[in-house]
């Protein structure tokens, strides 16, 4: 993109602010779809772009663990945007800054701030020189009573032409500035909403995983529950997940209000600048044409100060302009090297690898154990033919054997393929419904053929629903573990949001420069035209008196 070139970079303030203030884990684009076709525990999954009819195979997910150090993955430090950030550093004797993009480094800020120095220098020179000019004019008028001679028609005409041209230029600049800030504000708000949506989706997914794990502790199939050590592990993981989700939600909520407030204030400031400069240019032109000299000089005083302030504002926008351009390049480079340690780790870090790995293993383990609990009941109770005297194991089981549930993991938690005759997690409830009998109350004995009582069916379905939900969150947890979600976020911002933000920020930058230069030159021609108009009037009066005297003689 053009805004990524070394000079001039383009500003997109929202992303910059979001980098400063956001530290959440962000996940790829997602929408809500229901898991459930099963009676019992139900929870919505926030995972895919549309409802999936089949369990997503884990083996198809491209994984790259953060702790990998071999086969082309370099975990050493990476200097981001190294070439484009090589600027003079005033804090280091104006030597080249070589630290790359790093908003935590004062030398980076000093070097990028130095790029705005020309505008600050122009503002200072303008303020001082124009003040001296006004002082000289005041001294000349107060101390030297000089007659006004030297009227020139060419000077009068040229001053009027240039006054009209620069007034038109100021109006055009104000229009560009106003339109640019409106589009920029809308674009930055959309980017903010996108970043907040990413954080909210991740927090919701983390809470859902926590809810599924917590619900797994309450699952009981024929009084069989998970072992105490697994329940304790679930409690430990739940604490970490809930802490991450709570911090994420709180921080994103606070930061959204803070960033939006900053954007609104920036928009108000730009609107005021555009309106004041437009009003100033129009009044200055009108008063000059009408010959209201006192009002012209009064506006000159205000314009002198406003032009200096506008040049300073140009410098500030140029600084942010450069930082944002650096940020775009840094994002692109980080996407290519997500495992390297960079300055972005301080802004938008990946999820702690140990926590992500622990959560991932725990969801696999709970899924594996719940399937074992269900299959244990099927093999030891439902598919056995007990004599009536062994109640409650006997409830008049009869008919075809109930197919066992496919366990997606081996005992070592590696992926397992379903064997022939096993039912999968996503359709087990529909299959088992055919093996459910009707029971008489209160004995609970089957009165029709079948090997599952409604109570067994409900308990098994609830267990399967939990297992299915945890299994479906596997890809999400893998994305947390290998930083895919951060890569996706930076890629989306760079490709989808940067172009518009770059374009509209450039409008603001161009509008400010046009307004500053046009009003600055208009101020000069207000004074020049007022002087030429006064000389023209005096010359006509003088010529009329001379002509009258000559006629009298």
UniProtKB/TrEMBL annotation:
<feature type="signal peptide">
    <location>
        <begin position="1"/>
        <end position="28"/>
    </location>
</feature>
<keyword id="KW-0472">Membrane</keyword>
<feature type="transmembrane region" description="Helical">
    <location>
        <begin position="119"/>
        <end position="142"/>
    </location>
</feature>
<feature type="transmembrane region" description="Helical">
    <location>
        <begin position="507"/>
        <end position="530"/>
    </location>
</feature>
<protein>
    <recommendedName>
        <fullName>Transmembrane protein</fullName>
    </recommendedName>
</protein>
<dbReference type="InterPro" id="IPR040283">
    <property type="entry name" value="DDB_G0292058-like"/>
</dbReference>
<feature type="transmembrane region" description="Helical">
    <location>
        <begin position="294"/>
        <end position="320"/>
    </location>
</feature>
<keyword id="KW-0732">Signal</keyword>
<keyword id="KW-1133">Transmembrane helix</keyword>
<feature type="transmembrane region" description="Helical">
    <location>
        <begin position="154"/>
        <end position="179"/>
    </location>
</feature>
<dbReference type="GO" id="GO:0005886">
    <property type="term" value="C:plasma membrane"/>
</dbReference>
<dbReference type="GO" id="GO:0009506">
    <property type="term" value="C:plasmodesma"/>
</dbReference>
<keyword id="KW-0812">Transmembrane</keyword>
<feature type="transmembrane region" description="Helical">
    <location>
        <begin position="268"/>
        <end position="287"/>
    </location>
</feature>
